[in-house]
Structure formats: C-alpha cells, structure tokens
Queue: 2 jobs
Job 1
Amino acid sequence: MKKRNLVFTVASSLLLATVLMSQTKKPAAPAKTAGATASGGASASITRGKQVYLEQCLACHQVDGAGVQGMNPPLVKTKFVLGDKNTLVKIVLNGMQGVEVEGEEYHGVMAPHSDLTDAQIADVLTYVRNSFGNKAKAVTAAEVKAIRAKNKPA
Ligand code: HEC
C-alpha cells in the first residue's frame, strides 16, 4: 500500500514536471554545454565557486589564497587543499582551530560554514582546488552530501 502511494507520488510529480517544463519554452542549450553534467561540469562549478569564495572565504584567506601570516593559513598547495576530500569538506563544515598548516602555526579561528549548501561547498572547494596554482580533482555536491551525512559535529 505504502509502496503504491510512493509510486503514484513519483509518477504524478514527474508528470507535473513534464507539464511545467513544456510550458516554459527555453531556448535550445548552446552546443558547447552539451555533454556537461547536470551541474554544468567542472568549469561552471569553478565559476560559481569563485563567487562563494569572494563572499565566504576572501576576508581571511585573501583574494590570492595567500592568507594572512600568523592568522589565516594560505590555500596554496597545502596538504588540506590538495589532499583527501573528506578532511577538506569537514574543514568547511566544522571550521578549524589550532592546527599547524605546512609547519606554521596560525592563531585565527575558522568558523563552521555548515549553512552553505552541498553545491556551494562543492563549488567553492572545486574553485580553490583549481586556483592559486592548485590543481586537484573537482569536489561534487553528491560527495559533500555523503560527507555531511556522516559528519558528527564536535
Ligand atoms: C574568519 C576567517 C576565515 C574564514 C571566513 C574562512 N577561513 Fe579557512 N581557515 C581560517 C583559519 C584561521 C584556519 C586555520 C585554523 C587553524 O589554525 O587550525 C583555516 C583553515 C582552512 C583550511 C585548512 C588549512 C589550509 O590552509 O589548507 C582550508 C582548506 C580552509 N580554511 C578553507 C576555507 C574556505 C574554503 C573558506 C570559505 C568557505 C574558509 N576557509 C573561510 C580562517 C578562515
């Protein structure tokens, strides 16, 4: 019984979506976006991520990612930026304090940014991992979602 309800709900919302979509006549997508993922691919993610960076991270980590000596660490080729995505996403979700970065101590406090959406966190980290001389794989919203689900706030 429950299952039938669910199937019905899914089917009717699909129908509704189809009707809505057919009513909004969007121009055909330009050819260069063909083949990109639903979120527009890595380069679109980097573009969106830059906006998030300017709003959320710039004040501390600076426009060039160099940070502020003794206060806020750089985001240039650090093991956190280039390393394990799990740790990196958790830094954004939970903030960070009192960790040595590349042999230097920093006395600033990074507050949690768990109010950002999965997509915003994915975009900003994809931007950081592909800016300031960094080169590392994109972070996807699905990855952030999975990490957030297992994240236990301290
Ligand atoms: C209020 C200032 C502040 C803001 C805003 C901030 N950070 Fe931080 N961030 C810090 C500080 C301070 C540390 C290091 C804390 C420590 O000493 O352990 C840090 C550490 C980090 C680290 C790990 C260390 C490194 O340098 O590799 C990453 C990655 C990072 N921040 C990314 C971000 C991103 C992405 C944003 C925006 C979503 C952001 N931060 C916003 C201050 C800030």
Note: The domain at 40-150 is CATH 1.10.760.10 (Cytochrome Bc1 Complex; Chain D, domain 2).
Job 2
Amino acid sequence: MTEETRRDEIAAGLAGVEAQIAEACRASGRTREELTLVAVSKTYPASDVRLLAGLGVRDVGENRDQEAAVKARECAGLGLTWHFVGQLQTNKVRSVAGYADVVHSVDRPRLVAALGQEAVRAGREITCLVQVALDGDPRRGGARPADVAAVADAVAGAPGLRLGGVMAVAPLGEEPGRAFARLREIAQAVREAHPGADVISAGMSGDMSEAVANGATHLRVGTALLGRRKPFVR
Ligand SMILES: *Cc1c(COP(=O)(O)O)cnc(C)c1O
C-alpha cells in the first residue's frame, strides 16, 4: 500500500471516530473539548503514528513496552503525548518512564513506588491513572474498587508522579454503560480526596458512546482508527 492510500484510510477512520464522538456528545450534552482522543497504535508501525500526527492527533497509546519504546523513539520530535495503557511489570518501569507521559494502568503500590523512583531518576513527571478492575477481578490488570483509594493516595504522595484520575476497560459480559457508571462513582470519590484528579479514561472502539455518556474524558481507540489488528502471539 502506498503511503497516500494508507493516509486516506486512516483519515477515513478518524472521520468516522470523530462523527461517533460528536454524536455521543450531542446525546449526552457534552462538548468535544471535554474529550481527549488517544489513538492506540499497538501492532501498527511508526509510519502510521506519523500519519495520525499529520492528521492532527496529539495523543498516542501503546500497551507493550518493547514495541512502544521503539516507536516513541522513532516518533520523537512530533511533539506527541505518549500514553502507556497495558499491564505493566515492574521490570519494564525504567524503560516506560523514559517516554510515557501518562500511564493508565497503575494498579498496585509496588508499581507506584517503582514508577516514582524511575520518574525522578529520569527527571520527568509522569501522570498516573489508577486502573480499576470493574469486575472486581484484578487478574487482567486493575485494582479492586476497594483498593483504588489506597493506590490513588500512594500516587499522590510519590515524588515524580502526578495523580491524573482513573481508567478502566469494560468487563466482558456486562453492558458497558453499567460498568462505566460504576467507574464514574469511583472517579468521583477519587476526585473528592484529590481535587484535580479529573481524568476518566474509558471507552474503546466498541463502547465510546457509553463512555462519553458516563463522563469519560479520555477515549482509547485503536481498531476504529487504524483497522483490525492481526492476532499476535505474546
Ligand atoms: C488495545 C487497547 C485499546 C484499544 O482497543 P480498540 O478496541 O482497538 O479500540 C484500548 N485500551 C487498552 C487498554 C487496549 O489494550
């Protein structure tokens, strides 16, 4: 495929996503300015990230350090904000702290401590979102709702880190709107304890509208922008 064809493809994806966001905003009485679109570029090449940037996208998300580190390096100079959205092992924290501006998947005190230490070492400030396991099962990432306050407090008290708010993925087998309504309540409690921690990262290609209706501030969208990913083996 030529670069021009790919550009047209991505432009069409972006237009479709923007149309969905506009409709969701209209339906829930919100404005586009309240929302940040994070383009999740995992499995897609740095050339796609450049095309996205050329189309005005400023926020890019990745979920695996190995891939993200290379892409962030290749795209340095584009002035992008890099979001790390995947499960994060402490042995990857030093690398992630080198390029990530926002980490959406902070879910345990040990990870907070490691991120804070590496952010300070790198001389950077990293915005952290507390990931919530809305189904109460932390195995696929996220803190249990009952543990969110403690993780948020840890982030707020850690040098090098800034508490941005909360993040979640809608659990399988539950209507996303119901799940995101619970996230909104949890976000409210976090904000009461930490004024300014007003980010709600929720909503992916399949459930953007439900997320917007439930107060999301950040949408993490991959497939609807860039196309269906090829399955890959970890
Ligand atoms: C891949 C991914 C997304 C984007 O998902 P799509 O369904 O492709 O839009 C969002 N959030 C996280 C955490 C992801 O891993």
Note: The chain has one domain: 3-226.
